[in-house]
Write a structure and sequence with these properties.
The structure holds two protein chains of two kinds.
Chain A (H helix, E strand, L loop, with lengths): L1 H15 L46 E7 L19 E2 L17 E5 L15 E7 L2 E6 L7 E7 L8 E3 L5 E6 L21 E6 L7 E7 L7 E7 L13 E7 L17 E6 L22 E6 L15 E6 L6 E6 L5 E5 L19 E5 L22 H4 L9 E6 L4 E2 L2 E2 L27 E6 L11 E5 L7 E6 L5 E2 L5 E2 L15 E3 L4 E5 L5 E5 L3 H4 L1 E2 L13 E3 L4 E6 L10 H4 L16 E7 L3 E6 L3 E7 L19
Antiparallel strand pairs in A: 1-35, 2-6, 3-4, 4-5, 5-6, 7-8, 8-9, 9-10, 11-12, 12-13, 13-14, 15-16, 16-17, 17-18, 19-22, 20-21, 22-23, 23-24, 25-26, 27-28, 28-29, 29-32, 30-31, 33-34, 34-35
Chain B lengths: L1 H12 L11 E6 L4 E2 L2 E5 L3 E6 L5 E5 L13 E5 L4 E5 L8 E8 L5 E10 L59 H29 L1
Parallel strand pairs in B: 1-4, 3-9
Antiparallel strand pairs in B: 1-2, 4-7, 5-6, 5-8, 8-9
Classes of the chains: A mainly beta, B alpha+beta.
């Protein structure tokens, strides 16, 4: 009888379902309730294809697309053959978002006077620009108006792999790498052996954004550098020329594993530091020979590698360097991602007056802090009872299936945060618990500095990897306060439900590069899993301390339960929403296996402090998106595009 | 002729690519009272390095064929004084996928630590549970998705389309097989090139004669 009743009710519901929309109150739209959609699907079968663009048009409702550029410069994916290959070419805005789409994008860097809303001044200063490395080339975009970004020029290099790009704060000089590794592992996008790589760092003058021009290059055999950063010191006494007011230093990450001797016969460490005599200005194209550093030389000035006894073994090599001035101590620090050797914080405040090319002491002796999951000393902060680890054995820390090891990228916060505010927020809006700021005798402890680190895996049958939040308020006593992984469960090949997402291969859902926002937000690409916004502002309050009161001096040992990193949303780029079939209309290379033959495949992102996120997707180009949580009424740039009609 | 010789040289040198990103070395830190880590999993052609960071004089040994002595081919013996390093490349020629036990001995011969090293063959394991992306499947010994003549259970670079490379799968991967089609083309081109040079020399000699 119960079965019959149920059947009748079901029939009744089915019969009336088509009319359901007619029973509303008319004028008031029904409130839509968002149901969480997990954008991560591991198993490719008849129900899911990693190359089906439209099935990956997924996002949480708190994010919207502001603008998009497919990086088409002038209708050609390469410059004309007669163009000097040390110079770029200007782009025609008429080719924005028409075919072909060049693809192969990787890292993105942005720079400008964002908090002045990118105002441009008569003397040529001001404005905001994005620089995108794209294997054989890099692009320069004007992003002063986030809802109307413009491609200004494209610099094409005959040799690849340009996978990292940095720009000076004056927007005049770009530093790109040419890395010669993974030539067997990674496919060559253009299938052209001539593009298979070089081992160089190149400097490109971009003072004229329409005509970038190469001014210097340095070889670093055998592999070049995987990543690089730079800093201009204006208080250094070792300048080589009396007219050199400020001195330029470069920080390269040599991808060769540590503790080996290169083909040169000299032992160079993984972190390699160079001094550039006479600085960038000596290479201005208008300078005379006398004014120029005509040899374009750079001098090897220092080196660093983790001391073996400060590791738990494993694979130890430098993947990435990020330069940052600590907001409390004022130290100039390198945040170095060292794979199995974890996060290394190295003080480069005072370059020596005499070069130390093999890094015997500088900055080798200036490591101020480190973080690995395992204890790396007999006593002290890193000893078994210290707070500078997570109580793991060496075997646990080096177990990638647990989401550990392989530290690939590190990003320190630019500023301190207290609850959900930073020093960028007017003091009148600070919660009581933030007192008068970091120096407040009672509430100063609530102002924290965090560094976010994450691994990268080519494959991992159990995990996609943790994004770790390390408290670096005291860079000499870093400690773990929170960890986060992609939310949701997965289906294993045997059909069982698994508590983690995992990486069947091709790096598919691995964390990659990230950036910090303001007030505790963090943005991180996860390749095919898209770009994720997490909120770290509540971590400090949600930590359960063993004795009930915050004890940063005890570090991890004082913590009963780690704090919570909150998931706020995600965005998967899938072409512009105003084009019905972007794959064909924009000519996407869906067989681009530099991007693991998938779309999306998100390499890098950068946060514009006006509240916008710039994403570099490897197949389709650059996306500008905004999360509701980042909206700032001072910088209102609504989308200018018109949605497609249903 | 000089140009031709340079071209021949260039062709011969082309395959000498460098591959380094990612770890092909695995460090084991030998401390006073423990060793980090004490289990290691690595792939053929990787190198295991023992780094001494204490004041003891020790030695490292491994009995390749488990016959009780340490003097046979592929056995490993190395003195490990304070601050020194012992390393062994587990190359594909001499070492196959297996469990290798390394013993670290004190100066007096007593056993200090044991390292269990699992070596994985540098070929894809057809029984792996790893699900490849891209819609193809390893493990089907009769499958050859890219039609390159190399069955997918041994082809480390399966192509989904002609001329399209795919990131190889599996954490044990160490390098792509040569694509048989490309190899064939290269061989044919090489033979043709040499034959042309021969014909050219023959004509020159006859003319001069």
């Amino acid at each position: 009888m119960r079965c019959i009743s149920s059947a009748l009710i079901l029939c009744f519901l089915m019969a009336f379902a088509p009319f359901a929309g007619c029973f509303g109150s008319g004028d008031e739209p029904a409130e839509e309730v968002y149901v969480w959609v997990d954008p991560v699907t591991e198993i490719e079968d008849g129900n899911h294809s990693h190359t089906d663009l439209m099935s990956h048009r997924l996002q949480t409702p708190n994010v919207r697309l502001i603008d998009y550029h497919n990086l088409n410069c002038d209708g050609n994916v390469k410059p004309p053959t007669d163009l000097d290959n040390v110079a770029g070419r200007p782009c025609d805005p008429a080719f924005k978002n028409v075919a072909p789409t060049p693809g192969d994008s990787s890292e993105i860097a942005i720079e400008g006077n964002f908090l002045e809303d990118c105002e441009k001044y008569p003397d040529g200063t001001g404005g905001c620009y994005a620089y995108v490395s794209s294997y054989n080339q890099f692009e320069i975009l004007d992003i002063s108006k986030p809802n109307n970004i413009t491609l200004l020029s494209t610099y094409y290099a005959e040799v690849a792999r340009i996978i990292d790009i940095k720009v000076t704060s004056d927007n005049n000089w770009v530093l790109i790498n040419h890395e010669l590794t993974n030539s067997e592992l990674d496919p060559i996008p253009n299938d052209d052996d001539a593009n298979s790589g070089a081992n160089r760092l190149d400097v490109i003058y971009v003072g004229n954004k329409n005509e970038p021009i190469k001014v210097a290059e340095w070889n670093n055999p055998p592999a070049g550098f995987h990543n690089q950063d730079l800093h201009v010191y204006c208080d250094w006494d070792g300048a080589s020329h009396p007219d050199e007011d400020c001195s330029l230093f470069l920080f390269g990450a040599d991808p060769y594993p540590e503790m080996t001797e290169g083909d040169s016969g000299t032992f160079y460490k993984g972190t390699q530091i160079f001094y550039v005599p006479m600085g960038f200005e000596s290479w201005l194209p208008t300078q005379t020979d006398e004014q120029q550093n005509s040899s374009r030389e750079i001098l090897r000035w220092g080196g660093y590698s983790p001391e073996p006894e400060t590791t738990c073994g494993g694979s130890i090599f430098n993947h990435d360097n990020v330069f940052h001035i600590h907001p409390i101590t004022g130290q100039k620090l390198l945040y170095v991602s060292y794979w199995g050797a974890g996060l290394r914080i190295v003080d480069v405040t005072n370059p020596p007056l005499i070069p130390d090319p093999e890094g015997v002491s500088w900055p080798q002796d200036d490591e101020v802090g480190r973080w690995l999951g395992c204890s790396t000393a007999d006593d002290g902060w890193y000893g078994p009872d210290g707070g500078g680890h997570a109580g793991m054995s060496a075997n646990e820390w080096l177990d990638q299936n647990l989401g550990n090891d392989n530290i690939h990228y590190a990003v320190p916060y630019d500023h301190l945060i207290c609850k959900d505010v930073s020093q960028y927020v007017d003091q009148s809006q600070w919660p009581t618990e933030c007192g008068t700021g970091p120096d407040d005798s009672v509430y100063g402890i609530n102002w924290r500095h965090y560094t976010i680190i994450a691994p990268e895996y080519g494959s991992n049958t159990n995990h996609t990897g943790f994004v770790w939040t390390i408290d670096t308020t005291d860079p000499a006593k870093p400690f773990l306060v929170s960890k986060w992984k992609l939310p949701g469960q997965s289906i294993l090949p045997d059909g069982t439900v698994h508590d983690n997402h995992y990486i069947p291969g091709g790096y598919i859902f691995s964390p990659h590069n990230g950036d910090t926002g303001t007030n505790g937000h963090v943005y991180w690409t996860h390749y095919h899993a898209g770009n994720w916004l997490t909120d770290h502002s509540g971590i400090w309050d949600s930590i359960v301390w063993k004795d009930g009161t915050p004890s940063p001096d005890l570090g991890w040992q004082g913590i009963e339960t780690l704090g919570e990193t909150e998931t706020l949303g995600y965005y998967l780029p899938a072409g512009p929403e105003w084009i019905a079939d972007p794959t064909s209309e924009l000519g996407y290379d869906m067989a681009d296996c530099w991007a693991s033959c998938m779309i999306p495949f998100d390499w890098g992102l950068q946060y514009d402090p006006r509240g916008y996120l710039f994403i570099s997707e490897m197949v389709s180009g650059v996306y500008v998106v905004q999360f509701d949580e980042d909206k700032d009424p001072r910088f209102d740039y609504p989308p200018l595009w018109t949605p497609l009609e249903e | 002729m000089r140009v031709a010789l340079i071209l021949v040289l260039l062709i011969a040198l082309t395959p000498m690519a460098v591959s380094a990103h990612g770890a092909d070395k695995f460090s084991v830190i030998v401390r006073g009272v423990r060793m980090d880590p004490d289990t290691v999993q690595m792939v053929q052609n990787d190198t295991v390095e023992f780094l001494s960071v204490n004041n003891s004089n020790r030695s490292v040994r491994m009995d390749f064929n488990s016959d009780g002595d340490y003097n046979d081919s592929y056995d490993f013996n190395c003195e490990l004084p304070s601050g020194a390093m012992c390393s062994l490349e587990m190359n594909v020629t001499n070492y196959t996928g297996d469990l290798y036990i390394f013993e670290i001995l004190e100066d007096d011969g007593n056993l200090a630590f044991t390292l269990n090293l699992t070596l994985i063959n540098d070929t894809h394991n057809p029984n792996s549970s790893v699900v490849p992306s891209g819609g193809y499947s390893f493990g089907n010994v009769t499958q050859d998705v890219d039609g390159d003549g190399i069955l997918d259970n041994v082809d480390r670079c399966v192509n989904t389309e002609p001329d399209v490379e795919v990131l190889p799968l599996g954490e044990d991967f160490q390098g792509c097989d040569a694509d048989s089609n490309n190899s064939s083309y290269q061989s044919i081109l090489g033979v043709l090139f040499i034959a042309l040079i021969g014909v050219w020399i023959f004509i020159r000699v006859r003319k001069e004669g």
